[in-house]
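2.7 Reproducibility. Because tokenized structures are sensitive to small changes in the input, we list the exact sequence used for 2-hydroxy-3-keto-5-methylthiopentenyl-1-phosphate phosphatase, including any N-terminal residues retained from the expression construct. No trimming or masking was applied before prediction.
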Amino acid sequence: MKVLILSDFDGTITTKDTLVELLDIYAYPKWHAIAGLVARGKMGTRVALRKEFSLFYLPKNQYLSFLRKKIKIDPYFKSFVKFIRNKGARLVILSGGFSLNISQTLKKYKLGKMLFYANKLLFKNGKFEIVYTHPGNGCRQCGNCKKDRLLQFKKKGYYIVYIGDSVTDHCPVREADLVFAKWNLEIYCRKRKIPYILYKNFNDIKNYLSKNLLTK
Ligand SMILES: [Mg+2]
Ligand SMILES: [Zn+2]
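Resulting structure tokens (single pass, no recycling of outputs):
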């Protein structure tokens, strides 16, 4: 069986959602009104992200120094990656955030090359510009619909493990073969009776997979 692990980035691989941290410092309290609309299902993340990032601006060098200082990853993620690679399974990151945040983090923690899909953040004339490079088929909610990505991999015959924590993970979980959920995503799965396993960190996931799925 070919196993593919699809993982969210912000708040799942990172200990805190880097976008939330950024917005709390530079766009507080205005961005909370937008987040409230998203939480109540009144606005998709595709529209919300652009609105939130129109509330403030940081030049690229300051943005990068914010990432270097603030981003921290789950303390067990690195050993999880090693475990996955040893088992011959694949890991792909699906993010509703920005490629820049992911590439900087992979570099900072020396995680090597990893395939990821995310949105593009541009710094243009004193404003952020967000480019949705992977528009979802039919999904008007997300900037980078993870369900679309998941289905593309599923067609290739993978058994799909999905790991996430929040709103951009709502679309894909119903299609995954095995779901690890925490925080907002756990509540979402529970309310909609989508089977999931609760986790706190990547060590929990590693333990579960080594006993139940990647046993050899
Ligand atoms: Mg997240
Ligand atoms: Zn979607």
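The pocket of magnesium ion (ligand 1) is lined by residues 8, 10-12, 17, 165-166 (CB under 6 Å).
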